[in-house]
Specification:
Order of helices and strands: EEEEHHEHHEH
Shape: globular
CATH topology of the largest domain: Arc Repressor Mutant, subunit A
Structural class: alpha/beta
CATH class of the largest domain: Mainly Alpha
Distance between the termini: 34 Å
Largest sheet: 4 strands, mixed
Strand order of the largest sheet: 3-2-1-4
Number of helices: 5
Strand content: 15-25%
CATH superfamily of the largest domain: Winged helix-like DNA-binding domain superfamily/Winged helix DNA-binding domain
CATH architecture of the largest domain: Orthogonal Bundle
Radius of gyration: 16 Å
Length: 179
């Protein structure tokens, strides 16, 4: 069974989902792929301890602290490739960004391949089911393009600015499929 609750944040209402032990989803309301990794119907149950833990983590994060991802029981559902990409996302330091190409290079090394497609990495990043905590908002294009965010580009910008990212070389694309 999958349980859910809501959390009010500076980027809007957030839906949290868990399997009673671990967080399996965190989506900004209305975001692309909302609930995409949860096959079961979600049952509202805000009193679960895992939700208390996650909400305290989010309170710290939005208060400008830097809580460790390792403090949380996370269990995102996805293929081995996607979960490996999400593991790399968890390694991106607070307040820093990385490119899809950089992640592709790390994935190629981990998979013992000569190279890896940045587009395949982009698909995995875009389908991250635990936004904000697994920091897919910290991934940008090689040219500094913010390239998209399932929770919306404006929210991506808010999150990066909240973390103190130097935005001077980053820009919002004027057109593209990731808008």
């Amino acid at each position: 069974m999958i349980y859910s609750t809501h959390y009010s944040s500076p980027v809007g209402s957030i839906v949290l989902a868990c399997d009673s032990e671990s967080l399996v989803g965190l989506w900004i309301e209305g975001q692309k792929y909302f609930g995409g990794t949860v096959a079961e119907e979600m049952t509202e149950n805000p009193g679960l301890p895992v939700f208390t833990t996650v909400k305290k983590w989010l309170d710290k994060y939005f208060a400008g602290q830097r809580p460790a991802i390792s403090e949380l029981p996370l269990a995102p559902k996805g293929s081995a490739f996607r979960t490996a990409v999400w593991d790399i996302l968890c390694e991106i330091p607070y307040g820093e960004v990385i490119t899809y190409g950089d992640i592709a290079k790390k994935m190629a090394v981990r998979m013992k391949k000569g190279n890896m497609s940045s587009q395949a990495v982009g698909g995995a990043v875009g389908h991250n089911p635990i936004s904000i905590i697994i920091p897919c908002h910290r991934v940008v294009g090689a040219n500094g393009s913010l390239t998209g965010y399932a929770g919306g580009l404006d929210n991506k910008i808010k999150l990066l600015e909240h973390e103190g990212v130097n935005m001077s070389r980053l820009f919002k694309p004027k057109k593209g499929t990731a808008l």
